[in-house]
Amino acid sequence: MKPFALKSPIHLNKCLSIGTSLFLGLLILNELLFSFPVISFIILFFTGWLFWTFVEYFIHRFLMHELILPGSKDTLFNHQKHHQQPHDLKVRPFHRLIFLLILVLAIWFSVNKGGYTPILSGFLFGFTTYNYIHYILHQPFGKHLLPNVQRAHILHHFNRPQYGYSFSTSFWDWLFRTQPPKEDKLTETMIKNYFLNKSNLSKTKTSNSIEKVARKFNWIFAFLILSIIPACSPVFSDLQSARTPGKGQIEYTPITQTQVKPVNTKELIM
After folding, report:
1. pTM score of the predicted model
2. How far apart are CA 174 and CA 203, in angstroms?
3. Which one of 22, 48, 90, 203 is CB 3.0 to 4.6 Å from 123, fit for a cystine?
4. What is the pLDDT of residue 224?
5. Is the CB of residue 45 less than 8 Å from the CB of residue 118?
6. Those residues with Cβ within 8 angstroms of residue 189's Cβ, 6 or more apart along the chain or in another chain
7. If DSSP codes are grouped into helix, strand and coil, which group holds residue 148?
8. What DSSP assignment string belongs to 24-63?
9. Residue 217 and residue 84: Cα distance in Å, rounded?
10. Residue 251 main-chain phi, psi, to 5 deg
11. Where are the domains of the chain?
């Protein structure tokens, strides 16, 4: 896709500076609260998720649209084809299912290892949810779940390609002033071309059995993740009850401890 004639309000270097300062601030905050395991875990997990949303924005804007890589043109991501065929998504249900399984393992690893590993699980959480959000944005029912985000994405696909780069959160579009103008309206032609795609319909009919099964169980695994995360909450009090002086290290405390009651010699004599 050729770069749009209108320059974005905030340029690349300033975007990187603002993003770096924000993440450094979160890491400093974590250092100040590192003695509180649960709070530290939440801060690091949030930092990882937010970092993914920044990477998502950065790739979509600067690599797919503004094409900052010399000589890359549009061959690196072939993003122009996605704009021409909005409903032809390359990420299939089977792929999203794999992402979910990897996310479950990453969260389990972070809960057990602690340290700075929540940054990784937060990043993978952002990547996994991004793939689901992008799918929802290209479905008609998306207007009920994410109406504002879907509106911005439809405008981005057609007459406002220089706006609306974020999917997971509108924070970066707001911060870097790339939100679509509020006065823009969706036309019937936009909506029709956005959702209807003959090539996608033919591919849906010929989808293999593995993809069909994955589509059915995708939301089941999403529900399991929401169930597993609260179930892990007791782990924090049992396994992260104490910390060693070294940063990022956890002193594991056994869940059950055998305590020997002292013998009262007076009771034995009586």
Report:
1. 0.67
2. 36
3. 48
4. 55
5. yes
6. none
7. helix
8. HHHHHHHHHTTTSHHHHHHHHHHHHHHHHHHHHHHIIIII
9. 30
10. -90, 110
11. 12-269
